[in-house]
């Protein structure tokens, strides 16, 4: 199994915009479950940030193996969500992938 963890910091925007963008990212990415081969689980954490946090939201996803993760990164439905709901609004992205 492979974990794929992403932390995003959003661009400067109003709190209302930020709330809307987070909801769109969550909805778009979580809707990929069952559509991409090898994607076991996917969730986006948008709430519950403590003051000690320096990121706005987190993707926590699990794949059957590294090849499934590679397929996800190129899958047209994932690319559409990333290009339409994520990349236009993010200032920074950090990624950690690991086998477990």
Question: Can you walk through the features of this model?
Answer:
36% of the residues lie in helices and 33% in strands. It has a 4-stranded antiparallel sheet. It is of the alpha+beta class.
Query: Which structural class do you get from the secondary structure elements?
Result: alpha+beta
Helix content: 25-40%
Radius of gyration: 13 Å
The helix-strand sequence is EHEEHHE
Question: Quick check: average pLDDT?
Answer: 97
- Global shape: globular
What fraction of the residues are assigned to beta strands by DSSP?
25-35%
Number of helices: 3
Read across the widest sheet, the strand sequence of neighbours is 2-3-1-4
Termini distance? 6 Å
Question: Largest beta sheet, briefly?
Answer: 4 strands, antiparallel
- The parts where pLDDT drops under 50 for at least 5 residues are none
DSSP summary, beta strand count: 4
What is the topological layout?
Layout: E1 2-10, H1 15-30, E2 39-45, E3 57-63, H2 66-74, H3 76-86, E4 90-99
Antiparallel strand pairs: 1-3, 1-4, 2-3
Helix pairs in contact: 1-3
């Amino acid at each position: 199994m492979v974990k794929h963890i992403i932390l995003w910091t959003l661009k400067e925007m109003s709190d209302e915009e930020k709330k809307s963008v987070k909801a769109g990212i969550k909805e778009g990415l979580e809707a990929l479950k069952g559509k991409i081969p090898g994607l076991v689980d996917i969730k986006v954490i948008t709430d519950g940030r403590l003051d000690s946090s320096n990121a706005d939201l987190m993707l926590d996803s699990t794949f059957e193996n590294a090849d499934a993760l590679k397929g996800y990164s190129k899958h047209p439905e994932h690319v559409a969500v990333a290009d339409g709901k994520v990349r236009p609004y993010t200032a920074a992205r950090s990624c950690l992938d690991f086998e477990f």
